[in-house]
Specification:
Number of strands of chain A: 5
Low-confidence stretches of chain A: none
CATH architecture of the largest domain in chain A: Roll
Mean pLDDT of chain B: 88
CATH class of the largest domain in chain A: Alpha Beta
Number of helices of chain B: 19
CATH superfamily of the largest domain in chain A: Beta-grasp domain
CATH topology of the largest domain in chain A: Ubiquitin-like (UB roll)
Number of helices of chain A: 6
Shape of chain A: globular
Number of domains of chain B: 3
Distance between the termini of chain A: 43 Å
CATH topology of the largest domain in chain B: Aldehyde Oxidoreductase, domain 4
Shape of chain B: globular
Strand content of chain A: 5-15%
Order of helices and strands of chain A: EEHEEEHHHHH
Oligomer: heterodimer
Number of strands of chain B: 30
Structural class of chain A: alpha+beta
Chain lengths: ~160, ~750
């Protein structure tokens, strides 16, 4: 049995302890916002938050997140707003993604947004070097210039 | 602009009170069945539909796939503008996958440009289908959607609907139509101040005979086109709700992990599954002609079980082939000179013989994988003599027909479910069928939906690749140092006629293609042949410029006297990049220009070497003449995208063949440009007012040449093989300023 909280809701799953969190989310819970990209923690499409930190869920066995608080793209806005506030539709990062028209095909963007949200929570005004070393997600559509602009707009704000 | 073609417009009242107005592109008799599916009564066949409802809400159906290029926004913008609707009143829907919405305009557009649809040429030859049959495709590719479907269908349907609504209002008011005007989803009678919404007019308007001649707006009248409208698909892409093919779900779904023959074209010999069937969730081991699959109740369980399945594939002549062998074969082909002429102008051979000086440059590029972020996948559910399919595709109709064929059903019994595409880049075009076929054959064994997913490793090793190409050049100079002849032999096959042409005024030219076929499957890859050919031609033109003692920018400008649009984009890009001005120490600028898919693109790359002598691209300045911009922000996004895609190929892209199979596995050994490598990109749209050009591809071709031309200035080393990661720039000598 695997037990953890996802977007504030406790989940008990009768699954193997070595099943990666990615596949527990997608195939067991039907939460498809988190994406499969490479399966080896290289591309970041599967990024979620575990206790607020960005984690690549495709190589994270559910046994490693037992009892932890997990946030996915589906819960980002409500988790960012906190338990007692009325949940907004979008977090500041998500809104910046719309304002700067960042996504193209969009497939990598759940992971990109999760990675950036985690970076900004820890480092509200990251330098270009901070961005380069922390945001290592792959985007084949090449949204990188817009990702950088969107991060800068949030950093200034 | 007056449109008067032998095609026509159709309208009909629909259930619940409203009107559908569409634009027909072919004889309706050919599409009796399809039309019966969506509309009753009159036969009709349309490439686009506009639905107007009594509440003044308007739905525009888009027949193309959204894969990030913004087509679900730009096409409706074109229809809505001609209709004079308020953008807020517009809802966008993906057109269903029926041949009612087949985009014959795409094929006709290409037929006009090349005689055959460029990226489909190989397909036409391979499958002996005619251009007429290709009209039934619902393809998204070839940078075609806006310039062909948009210009020919979307705008026409919008303008026709507007004319009918005006006519209807004028008749109700008893006034002349030319006393009425339209604005924000209403018809107005200017003299009396009366106004009717389109919704109030739609049903009556549908009773009118649609106009045969439609007048499109002059650009000065545009209210929506030309504006940076936010894309309609983006909100769902920031909150996890956008559904891609791989996200298809149902309660009883099963999942297949599959191992395909590692050497292309070989067959499965034997399987030893051990006790895999006893593992949790595992349902079946499926043996197919060229593959073995494990089906389980989760993808992870299927994939883990497949690791334990032993399989043997037949041996093949290809088993010992390496990339070195393939390139040696290319060299033999090139040496034999058993070629097909592409261009013969003047007499290049004689000019070579008479030359005061001849330079040579032999170039190669490797195979490349598409590596779309969404791994290849397909879900099929065969039940009650129908086949339902969910997959991300650039050709919904083609997929429907293919799945039906493999399932042994008629095309009418296949149902396609649309989704967004997690990247296409040519991988999801028709005839790259491998995952589709496998998923269908596997699903035939079950009565529940089965989702087949390729791992990233299989996605990389079972692609249809950008062809590896070798291209040999000679240039002849006269005693005054003027270039007199251009001689080029390259390996085929040609997928895009015209990609090897040069716009430069060199009086004698001989360009020909030789056999380059191998056992490696190939397909279109973003910009198709332009990506390889532009690296070759724009690098060798740079060699000629330097040998002529001229600045590469000035040389191009001088040799392009007959091509003002090329000159303009070069001028704009060079000016914006600060070409000829002082640069930071250790930086250099490289330049390249190429016309592809109707757009002309110049790029200037600012490069340097890092402390490990690896190339760094700091900035790419790009000027694009795409005629005019329907949505300037989408234009910029597509240009940025094409540049990054080209940069990944230039810096890192290499699929190599070892023992007949692909050596690369996943992103670490098929590396991608990430944030840390991504340059600043400065895009300048040059509006020439010419016909619309494509956007999804044209910024990719010049990138590799621009970067390596800059590296030549910086290091004195001429890059004639990609990728750049294989080059050692440690002993570099900057060339003298030119």
């Amino acid at each position: 049995m695997a037990t953890f909280k996802i977007n504030g809701i406790e989940q008990n799953l009768d699954i193997e302890p070595e099943m990666p969190l990615l596949w527990a989310l997608r195939d067991e819970l039907g939460m498809t916002g988190t994406k499969f990209g490479c399966g080896i923690a290289s591309c970041g499409a599967c990024t979620v938050h575990v206790n607020g930190s960005a984690v690549r869920s495709c190589v994270t066995p559910v046994s490693a997140v037992e009892g932890q608080e997990i946030t996915t793209i589906e819960g980002l806005a409500s988790v960012a707003a906190g338990a007692n506030s009325s949940a907004p539709d979008l977090s500041a990062v998500q809104q910046a993604w719309i304002d700067h028209q960042v996504p193209q095909c969009g497939y990598c963007q759940s992971g990109m947004i999760m990675a950036v949200s985690s970076l900004l929570a820890k480092n509200p005004n990251p330098s270009d070097a901070d961005i380069d070393s922390n945001i290592t997600n792959v985007c084949r559509c090449g949204s990188y210039p817009r990702v950088r602009k969107a991060i800068r707009s949030l950093a200034i704000a | 602009m007056k449109i008067n073609r032998r095609r026509f417009l159709l309208s009909t009242a629909v259930l619940g009170g409203g009107v559908l107005i569409g634009y027909s592109a072919l004889k309706p008799s050919k599409h009796r069945r399809a039309n019966a599916e969506l509309a009753t009564g009159e036969e009709r066949y349309v490439t686009s539909f506009i639905k107007i409802e009594p509440n003044n809400k308007i739905t525009i159906y888009v027949p193309h796939s959204e894969m990030g290029q913004g087509v679900h926004t730009s096409l409706p913008m074109m229809a809505a503008d001609e209709l004079d609707a308020a953008w807020e009143d517009i809802t966008v829907e993906q057109a269903p996958a029926t041949d009612m919405f087949a985009n014959g305009e795409l094929v006709k557009g290409f037929a006009g440009e090349f005689g055959l649809p460029g990226f489909l040429t190989g397909i036409v030859n391979a499958s002996a289908v005619s251009v007429a049959e290709l009209m039934n495709l619902q393809v998204t590719g070839g940078s075609s959607s806006v310039r062909f479907t948009g210009e020919s269908s979307m705008r026409t349907a919008g303008a026709a609907a507007r004319q009918m609504l005006v006519e209807c209002a004028a008749s109700r008011w008893g006034v002349a139509a030319d006393e009425c005007s339209t604005k924000l989803t209403h018809v107005q009678h200017n003299a009396s101040g009366r106004s009717l919404s389109y919704g109030e007019l739609a049903v009556d308007a549908a009773m009118l005979e649609p106009p045969r001649d439609v007048t499109l707006k002059d650009p000065s009248q545009f209210t929506i086109m030309g504006k940076a409208i936010s894309r309609v698909d983006i909100p769902a892409k920031v909150d996890g709700t956008a559904v891609y093919g791989i996200d298809a779900q149902s309660e009883d779904m099963l999942y297949a992990a599959i191992r395909l023959a590692p050497v292309f074209g070989t067959k499965l010999v034997s399987v030893d599954a051990g006790d895999v069937l006893s593992r949790r969730g595992v349902k079946r081991i499926i043996e197919l002609e060229d593959s073995v699959a494990v089906v389980a109740d989760s993808y992870w369980r299927a994939k883990e079980a497949l690791k334990l399945v032993k399989s043997e594939f037949e041996s093949s002549d290809a088993d010992t082939i390496s990339s070195a062998d393939l390139f040696a074969g290319f060299e033999r082909s090139l040496a034999e000179d058993n070629n097909s002429k592409v261009i013969e102008v003047g007499d290049a051979e004689t000019a070579m013989d008479a030359a005061a000086d001849v330079i040579e440059g032999n170039y190669t590029v490797p195979y490349l994988a598409h590596a779309a972020m969404e791994p290849m996948n397909c879900t099929v559910h065969i039940h009650d003599d129908i086949a339902e399919v969910w997959t991300s595709t650039q050709d919904a109709l083609g997929i429907k027909a293919r799945v039906a064929k493999i399932a042994g059903l008629s095309e009418d019994d296949a149902i396609f479910h649309h989704s967004y595409l997690g990247g296409g880049f040519g991988r999801r075009l028709p005839f790259n069928w491998n995952v589709i076929d496998h998923a269908t054959l596997i699903a035939k064994e079950f009565d529940v939906p089965v989702k087949t997913v390729l791992s990233r490793e299989d996605d990389m090793q079972q692609d249809y690749y950008r062809p590896a190409v070798a291209s040999n050049f000679k240039a002849a100079f006269d005693a005054n140092g003027m270039v007199q002849a251009w001689h080029n032999r390259f390996t085929g096959p040609i997928q895009t006629p015209g990609a090897s042409h040069i716009p430069y005024a060199i009086p004698n030219q001989s360009i020909a293609v030789v056999d380059g076929d191998t056992h490696v499957p190939i397909a279109a890859w973003r910009s198709v042949d332009h990506s390889q050919q532009t690296f070759f031609t724009e690098s060798f033109v740079d060699e000629i410029a330097h040998r002529s003692g001229k600045n590469p920018y000035q040389f191009r400008m001088e040799m392009l006297a007959e091509h003002p649009r090329h000159r303009k984009v070069l001028e704009v890009a060079a000016e914006a990049a600060g070409y000829g001005q002082n640069l930071p120490e250790g930086h250099a600028l490289g330049i390249a220009v190429q016309e592809s898919f109707g757009s002309i693109v110049a790029e200037v790359a600012e490069v340097s070497l890092d402390e490990n002598n690896r190339p760094v691209v700091h900035k790419v300045t790009c000027a694009i003449d795409c005629g005019w911009a329907v949505n300037p922000d989408t234009v910029e996004a597509q240009v940025e995208s094409g540049i990054i895609y080209g940069l990944t190929a230039a810096l890192y892209g290499e699929i190599s063949i070892e023992n007949g199979r692909v050596a690369q596995n996943n992103f670490p050994d098929y590396e991608m440009v990430r944030m840390s490598d991504a340059p600043e990109i400065d895009v300048h749209i040059v509006e020439s007012g010419e016909e619309l050009g494509g956007l999804g591809e044209p910024s990719t071709p010049p990138l590799a040449a621009a970067v390596s031309n800059g590296l030549y200035i910086l290091t004195g080393q001429r890059v004639r093989e990609l990728p750049l990661k294989n080059h050692d720039f440690s002993r570099s000598t900057p060339i003298a300023k030119v």
